[in-house]
Design the sequence.
């Protein structure tokens, strides 16, 4: 595959054009909004827990932005559904980047992990899960709310 | 494209001066359409830098030996070239800075902090670059002055009928405006604004970063009080820019930076300032870069600013005509005859970063983002735009490639 086909490979375009978990959850158990002021990418994440209060039963997102940010967040919803909050809090960004599976420049890397960072902040706010320094710094930089 | 009666410059010939075009990008010839951000560098400038370092380099102004005298002569020679370039009355009024940004900060701090207070009004515009916006916003807040803006109309042109309302709101002390908008290419009526500013008793501060490389700029004809521009947008090195200011204003101002070079004498009790322009040039300046800046001015002057302006005008008119063919594409800003070689656009439903990324794979370099003009993005109702910008080395077939690339963007992402 050449670089172009790698970056805009079928699975990325599919998630971009048909995002999974797109929408909002009323009465979400956890919620956060993130934006990348540099390029204007925006993502809002909504989480509902199962009866155990730990397992992510449902996760939705809404937002607008570049193909990478929106496709990556769509892939993220599939990756984390059924996982426990603590697991996701500890999930390294490489887990998502492996799913995305394309080489990303530093600028585009921020697009790719916007959704994951926003989700970590949502869990931190709702469950007090740890937000390691890497993500706390990221939260400031990306204006996560 | 439009047929010209006289060939003013031969961009194809000039491209041979720019080594960067010898290197393909993603296996394709480079179509560099980001010159508003920074221009590429001709051999004439690169050679001058090397020759200067190899034959004439030393620190300036303090040395008594031959090499230092030659370095100083080259550095001061560059200052004289800047003076002539903007038709300033005196080289004493030309200050070397790091950039346009630093030049504008110098005025905001050194003039603004001492001359502004409650009841005063600082006026900027809705299409200002952050470099001529944020320093004034900060200084206004710090001094208690009001911060007002001149709005734009839907074509991205200043609405001068707002001036009366602004004048009625307090004592207008500063009007700050770019001569050319970096996002839309709008050529702003700075001469008119300068007359209005002086009627109010205000100073007129002009950001010429996007104007000086592309058309003749004359500080006396503009009637402004300060004017700033950069070397790197004009074929010159990064790290150096120039501020021109009226001598009587500069004389009355305190220094901006303190240290070596800017002093006359220092004692434990008191320090006095050096004369203009050195009062504002603390520390060792970007010596070789200033010399390279001078070489860049020589380069563009030899081509001729009228020829450059005419060439870019042809390109932007052609670009706007061809961009209109792309479905879902909206161009922002005024018609071609009232702008320089800059065109910003939105491709419906596709983020500018994706547009720029797909174009990159075609060897086409464009800028995507807010272009340091967030208030303007808000006014246009977008978070970002894609911007193509042209210079003396740009070719019409690069615009054809841009259009083909945009069709590909729509095919992949639309």
Sequence:
């Amino acid at each position: 595959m050449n670089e172009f086909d790698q970056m805009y490979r079928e699975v990325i375009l599919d998630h971009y054009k048909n995002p999974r978990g797109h929408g909002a959850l009323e009465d979400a158990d956890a919620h956060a909004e993130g934006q990348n002021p540099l390029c204007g990418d925006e993502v809002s994440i909504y989480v509902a827990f199962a009866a155990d209060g730990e397992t992510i039963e449902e996760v939705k997102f809404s937002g607008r932005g570049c193909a990478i940010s929106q496709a990556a967040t769509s892939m993220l919803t599939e990756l984390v559904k059924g996982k426990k909050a603590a697991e996701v809090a500890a999930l390294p960004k490489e887990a998502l980047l492996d799913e995305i599976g394309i080489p990303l420049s530093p600028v585009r890397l921020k697009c790719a992990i916007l959704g994951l960072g926003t989700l970590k902040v949502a869990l931190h706010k709702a469950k007090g899960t740890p937000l390691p320094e890497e993500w706390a710094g990221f939260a400031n930089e990306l204006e996560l709310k | 494209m439009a047929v010209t009666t006289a060939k003013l410059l031969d961009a194809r010939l000039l491209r041979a001066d720019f080594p960067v075009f010898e290197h393909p990008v993603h296996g394709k010839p480079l179509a560099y359409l980001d010159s508003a951000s920074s221009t590429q560098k001709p051999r004439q400038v690169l050679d001058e830098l090397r020759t200067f370092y190899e034959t004439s380099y030393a620190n300036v102004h303090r040395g008594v030996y031959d090499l230092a005298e030659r370095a100083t002569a080259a550095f001061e020679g560059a200052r004289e070239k800047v003076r002539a370039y903007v038709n300033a009355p005196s080289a004493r009024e030309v200050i070397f800075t790091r950039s346009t940004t630093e030049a504008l900060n110098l005025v905001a701090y050194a003039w603004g902090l001492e001359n502004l207070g409650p009841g005063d009004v600082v006026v900027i515009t809705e299409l200002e670059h952050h470099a001529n916006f944020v320093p004034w916003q900060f200084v206004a807040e710090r001094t208690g002055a009001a911060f007002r803006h001149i709005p734009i109309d839907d074509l991205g042109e200043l609405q001068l009928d707002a001036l009366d309302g602004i004048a009625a709101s307090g004592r207008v002390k500063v009007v700050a405006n770019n001569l050319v908008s970096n996002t839309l290419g709008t050529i702003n009526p700075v001469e008119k604004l300068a007359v209005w500013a002086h009627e109010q008793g205000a100073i007129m501060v002009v950001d010429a970063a996007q104007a000086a490389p592309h058309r003749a700029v004359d500080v006396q004809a503009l009637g402004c009080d300060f004017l700033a521009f950069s070397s790197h947008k004009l074929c010159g090195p990064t790290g150096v820019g120039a501020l021109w200011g009226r001598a009587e204003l500069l004389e009355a101002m305190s220094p901006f930076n303190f240290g070596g070079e800017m002093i006359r004498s220092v004692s434990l009790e008191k320090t006095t300032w050096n004369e203009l322009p050195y009062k504002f040039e603390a520390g060792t300046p970007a010596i070789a870069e200033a010399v390279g800046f001078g070489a860049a001015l020589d380069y563009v002057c030899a081509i001729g600013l009228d020829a450059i302006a005419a060439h870019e005008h042809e390109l932007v008119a052609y670009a706007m005509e061809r961009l209109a063919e792309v479905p879902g594409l909206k161009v922002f800003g005024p018609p071609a005859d009232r702008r320089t070689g800059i065109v910003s656009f939105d491709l419906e439903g596709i983020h500018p970063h994706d547009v720029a990324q797909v174009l990159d794979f075609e060897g086409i370099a464009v800028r995507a983002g807010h272009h340091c003009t967030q208030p303007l993005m808000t006014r246009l109702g977008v978070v970002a735009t894609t911007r193509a910008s042209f210079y003396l080395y740009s070719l019409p077939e690069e615009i054809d490639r841009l259009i083909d690339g945009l069709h590909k963007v729509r095919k992949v992402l639309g």
Summary: The CA atoms of residues 106 and 112 of chain A lie 10 Å apart.
